[in-house]
Amino acid sequence: MADQDGTGVQVQDAGGQARSGAARAYPVIDAIRAGQEVDAMVHDAVLREDAVLRVDGFRLYYGDSQALYDVSMPVPRGRVTAIIGPSGCGKSTLLRSVNRLNDLIPSVRVEGDMLLNGESVYAPDVDVIELRKRLGMVFQKPNPFPMSIFENVIYPLRIDGERNKRVLAEACERALKGAALWDEVKDRLKDSALGLSGGQQQRLCIARAIVADPEVLLLDEPCSALDPVATLKIEQLIHEISARYTVLIVTHNMQQAARVSDFTSFMYLGRLVEFGPTAELFQRPRLAETEDYVTGRFG
Amino acid sequence: MSRAADPSQTTTPPDPGSGQERAAPQPVRKRPPTPLDARGESMVWLTGGALTLALALIIGLILIIVVNGTRTFWPDPVQRVELASGEVFAGVEMSSEPDPDEGTRTLYRVGNRDIQRDTFRWVPDAEVVSAAPGAGLVMVDRLEWGVWLGKLESVAENGETVWSWGDDWSGFQRLLSDAAKRRAEIEKLAQDDLGSVNAQLEASRLRVKAAEIAASERIVATGMPFVAWVSALLVGAAGLFVAVRGVGGLAGRSATPIVRVAFGAVASVAVLAAGLEHPWAGEQMSPERLEAIAEREMEVQSSLGDRASAIEGEIRQLRAADESVRVALTDATGEQRAIDRRSSGDLSPPLSQVVRVARRNDAGLAHAVGVYFDRWWEYLSQPPRESNTDGGVMPVIFGTVLLTLLLCIAVVPLGVIAAVYLREYAKQGTVTSLVRIAVNNLAGVPSIVYGVFGLGFFCYTVGGYIDQGPENPMARFGAGGWWPLAVLVAILAPAGAAAVVLSRPAPGQRLSRREKLFRNLGVLLWGAVVAGAFVLIARTPYFGGLFEAQLPTPTFGGRGLLWASLTLALLTLPVVIVATEEAISAVPGSMREGSYGCGASKWQTIRRIVLPASGPGVMTGAILAMARGAGEVAPLMIVGAVKSAPDLPISGHWPFVHLERSFMHLGFHIYDLGFQSPDSEAARPMLWTTTLLLLTIVLTLNLVAIVVRARLRAKLHSGGGV
């Protein structure tokens, strides 16, 4: 396939193309490899949605190496948007750029911006602390804090200075119910959170992420460290949560993306390749690359 | 056996020509004989043996200390020793060894220091005619002159015998406890009542002296006009309000911190001026006022003097009553008797001189056990006597434990804060690595060096400053004056804050050259501010010392408990820093990220996630610091431990805690007993016991800390999760 590049990029409709086995042409990927700029294939259905978060020409560098290339994508309000792609394609980096966790890495430099409900994320006068309070985040590995279950859940409120015990107790119960964990832990809220099972810990982290009513819930491969049963529970939970919150989820499990998300974006080598409604992306992708990736023939 | 020597065992290399035709099956290669180090686990003997040797040494050491330390107080029978020369004496057998000349010789403890020169005596066994526990021979522990070994004849009150040997023993016990009560009463009057009066007398004297100093010394402050003072106060209040509450939109969002610091600086200068140069500051103490004070204190002192002489009269009375009861002690032959050395005549000593009588020869095992525990109790609850060779070690335990606690209080917060900076805030680079190496190396500096530093810095420099103020205070105004420097510092502080704010890069960007410049400028300015503030404090003309009246006797300007514990804190700081740093770096980064993801600031993350999670590690550091600090001797000899400190660092007189006092310490006590004692043979048993006690205390402190750590760990990981 390497000898078919250099012909310029023609975005073709992969849906109608005949399947030609191993020797298929990947015009977009080849163009990327050749160092050309490519435009992402964003479906119209996405653009029609009301965007809560708008990524705008976002580029990110780790020192001298570029990790994200001109990513622009809207995140539809009140929907679950999945980001898929092979390892190292920048999907986690993009997610962590939304709440500026990448600021913690000294060598990171960014260009472009994101708009969260119309407000800039990367403007110089943005208070990062306030920004992060507007977002909730769940990580790959469950990371409960070394404190009680109760304290874990209300941590975002505690650091916000909330002292009223009743408010805290109510928020804790609401969040734990929202994370489908209340019935399992309601009798041992004072116990250490580190004593919970992995799946419970991850649901606890979800409770912690939603306790302060985030504008967007960021999930960074939330099931990658869990067994199939716990994964199923989390997926159900994501489905329930999506009724109330906008969810942006990174996953490298395509079945999971297909099961839980309304929209799916496919990233490759730091670029957004295709972004559309999940059903369409999985059944009638417009690019050959996407089709072969979601069917497991490429990656 | 080499493989080349036996061709049948070697593999034939395939012929390069025939290799293409067919692949001949590889013949099974004969293995060389198994080497020795692959056979079994031979090294288990070496490694296990090394461990066994180490354990045997340690257990042996502990066993020797425990055995010798616990038998010190056991009352051995008193032997009646008859020599070939016809001499008879009472002695307690201590040890036996080959005589340098011939045969063997035995060491007897013979006591009775008031009538003979040696309290221990080597006797060649050949000269001994008989040696057996003699009936009627007792060992008497006395307050002075060490033990008496011999006979307890009788007790007389005003010359009349009220008890004699052979009478009911409980009668003597009653007399002895009466005498002890009288002694305690005298002691209480002399220590507490008279001590309190003396303390008040001293305080009154100091008040007069302080007034004299205030009247004679040139007053530094001139005092500002009332109007200026009020406006300074107002400016200070307004400035503080702005500094604390902030003013929105005064100079844009990012400039707000600068504005706050600027207002804070102006406010602090105004408040400083209002406090130091208030309108009444310039008034010198008038001679009339000084006279009035002197007169008043004179009255106080005379009434206190009356009380003192009343108490002294009471003590004299009690002492007379006490001395009316006397005890007759004679040696084994009954020829020589103990004499009250304080009286001019040849009277027997008062009964209250007797602490206890061990009559092992005539009483059963129960009596011996009773004496044993009585001696332990005295050891743990009483101060030492007889230049530390007898009595107890209560002040020593007290000093050691207090020192260790103070050391902990000082070193743990400082070490933790330093470690947090090194791990969480400092940029991990060459400089940080160098600092870390330097801190580790600090742990290897000989402790005596810390002692000398502590004496020079804490005792003389800091302590001297507290006692008498700066040695050469600055002028108030003019070039190089104190107030110009204060104003300069107040200007530099907001400038530094501004530089720091301007050096912050836009989010997601690296430092530009301009921002780097500002960063360096900020560091420079803040360094100047800190240095300036230090000079302001160190050379202020407004501070004349807290204990000027006591001079030339130093209060904090000498060796004392506070400086000793700070010196030890410095000594153990690297231990705490290293342990804390390790604990902090063991906190998983995912926890920190989780906290930041929740919108926590860096400090909130450190305070609520990192520090609690590294609690057990911090405890480990504290344990190591305590163990090292409690056992240290060399620096303590320089900065405050003394052979004998009659006053505890805690007392019933204001201010109750006297951290400036020198103190006794178990490590130093052991050194003193072992090498500085006038009677090294008598001190030896106490040496063992004191060593045992030091080990026990260090072990107990460690055990407590370990239990606390285990509970912390259990709290963090209850349920045995991750």
Task: Note the main attributes of this structure.
heterodimer; A: 299 residues; alpha/beta; 7-stranded mixed beta sheet; 13 helices; globular; disordered N terminus; B: 722 residues; alpha+beta; 5-stranded antiparallel beta sheet; 18 helices; flat
Molecular structure report:
The complex is a heterodimer of chains A (299) and B (722). Chain A has 299 residues and is of the alpha/beta class. Helices cover 34% and strands 23% of the residues of chain A. Chain A has helices spanning 27-33, 44-48, 91-98, 128-133, 149-153, 155-159, 165-178, 182-185, 198-210, 228-241, 254-260, 278-283, 288-294, and strands at residues 41-42, 51-62, 65-76, 80-84, 108-116, 119-120, 135-138, 216-220, 246-250, 263-268, 271-277. Chain A has a seven-stranded mixed sheet with strand order 1-11-10-4-9-8-7, sandwiched between helices. A four-stranded antiparallel sheet of chain A has the order 3-2-5-6, covered by helices on one side. Chain B is an alpha+beta fold and 722 residues long. Chain B contains 18 helices and twelve strands. Chain B has helices at 43-71, 169-216, 226-245, 256-276, 287-323, 365-381, 394-425, 430-442, 447-468, 482-502, 513-538, 561-586, 589-597, 602-613, 615-631, 634-639, 666-675, 680-716; strands spanning 79-83, 88-98, 104-109, 120-124, 128-133, 137-142, 148-157, 160-164, 325-330, 354-358, 384-385, 390-391. In chain B, helix 2 (169-216) packs antiparallel against helix 5 (287-323), helix 4 (256-276) runs antiparallel to helix 10 (482-502) and helix 9 crosses helix 12. Chain B starts with 42 loop residues before the first helix and ends in a 6-residue tail after the last helix. The A-B interface holds A 60, 99-104, 106-111, 122-126, 128-137, 139, 141, 143-147, 155-156, 158-160, 191-196, 201, 205, 208-209, 212, 218 and B 253-254, 427, 506-510, 588, 590-591, 593-601, 604, 608-609, 612-613, 715-722.
